[in-house]
Amino acid sequence: MLMAQGRPARLHYMANNFRVLAAGDHVVCAQSGARVSLEELRYWSVLRQEPYATCELSTRAEHAA
């Protein structure tokens, strides 16, 4: 999807996967604001529906909740 390059995707996060709701090539980490490409996205919260750049940031968000 060439038109989606450089644009953030909108995703629905599920337990073991995510569904693309709006095309894009990355998401923005809810903790750090870092861009995370969809190919590298491994951490998210199903409950809060937000992505994280690293395991550490995901854990920090979980403990803050």
Automatic annotation (TrEMBL):
Protein's UniProt name: DUF2093 domain-containing protein
Pfam families xrefs: DUF2093
InterPro entries (alphabetical): DUF2093 (IPR018661)
